[in-house]
Amino acid sequence: MDKLIIEGGLPLRGRVRVSGSKNAALPILFASILLDSPVTYTNVPNLRDIHTTLKLLNILGLEAGFESGAAEVKPAGQLNPEAPYDLVKTMRASVLCLGPLLARLGEARVALPGGCAIGARPVNLHLTALEKMGARFDLDSGYIEGKTSGLHGAKIVFDQVTVGGTENLLMAAALAKGETILENAAREPEVVDLANFLIACGAKITGHGTPVIRIEGVESLSGCRYPIMSDRIEAGTYLVAAAMTGGELTLENCPCEAMDAVFSKLREMGVVIDEAPDGLVVRRGGELKCMDVTTIPYPGFPTDMQAQIMALMCVSSGAGTIRETIFENRFMHVQELMRMGADIKVSSQSAFVRGVTRLTGAPVMASDLRASASLVVAGLTAHGVTEVQRIYHLDRGYEAMEVKLQALGARIKRAKE
Description:
Blueprint: E1 2-7, E2 13-17, H1 22-30, E3 39-42, H2 48-59, E4 63-67, E5 70-74, E6 82-83, H3 85-88, H4 98-105, E7 107-111, H5 124-132, E8 136-140, E9 143-147, E10 155-157, H6 163-174, E11 179-183, H7 189-200, E12 204-206, E13 212-216, E14 225-227, H8 232-245, E15 248-252, H9 260-269, E16 271-276, E17 279-284, E18 293-295, H10 306-314, E19 319-324, H11 334-339, E20 343-347, E21 350-354, E22 363-365, H12 369-381, E23 385-389, H13 392-397, H14 401-407, E24 411-416
Parallel strand pairs: 2-15, 3-14, 6-7, 10-11, 18-19, 22-23
Antiparallel strand pairs: 1-23, 1-24, 3-5, 4-5, 7-9, 8-9, 11-13, 12-13, 15-17, 16-17, 19-21, 20-21
Helix pairs in contact: 1-2, 1-7, 4-6, 5-6, 6-7, 8-10, 8-12, 10-12
């Protein structure tokens, strides 16, 4: 296993290109199952989860490969309905092959998914909705087994906003007979990117980006060439890193239109963010100050930025409360930040943060993907050396993070534990 060794205290300066979005790329790659001709994706991030997904597509019978930021997927001669546990256990998003397999093949056998241990994230919302479209499910030895004689349109009202559920149903409904209406649908930019991709392949979808999405099923979908949107969470992480270290960065390929809530909160805390013709410029405007933050579904403040903004608050003046409403187990980074000198108290789903003068380097352990990022940005500003262990989480969602940071002046290196 690898770890990152960081000597903190240097301001980040320079230009950094934001990679393609992992959270957009994964469902779009799974949508390849629906297509009857080859597809090429560009702006694909070179990440562990991407390569796991391509391996899974190959196991399902498709021809999938990756080279230089592009992925090409060719349709299967014969689809295999089973997504095995050995691959699925490492990645939560693998459940997104369920809807496409049912729509294209009429059956699916998908291992219950793994991924970050940040909460239950049950798949029952996916299954209940697919049952309304004509699917039947059994649970056998840790596998979801689904069958259908043909999916049909239905009106589906999600009990709670679910990004994965909305994505699974979008893909399933694209080839179902008749119209499907999704109410209380997720509005995240990554959901919109999936819908736009399906439309580019011939799907009939309206309302994406709103709480009500309508899908009129079509007979077939054809491949195209499609650019994956840029990663708003990676961009937000570099914004925080620039502010914490007192540097100045220009972000290229930044999805500014998807980041209003993050921009608003960071500006409120004292971060200067300016859109320029050659990229997004970010720097600390003066003394940073703590604010209250509540994570809510898009267009609210994203849960995937909660850990990073907590790290920023740790070195800001005053105090603030972070309230996590999406996942019930997403404060596992708190104890690690406290090892570095942070002043944080957790009560139920809220964390009370009081800023300190400085953080101190320490050995810390990453518990999940975004916790990893918060520990890295904390290490960049801490006095002394920080060792971030178990960075395989980080490699799932940040493309060559230490390489990008080195180019910006950080003293950071990868080493074996």
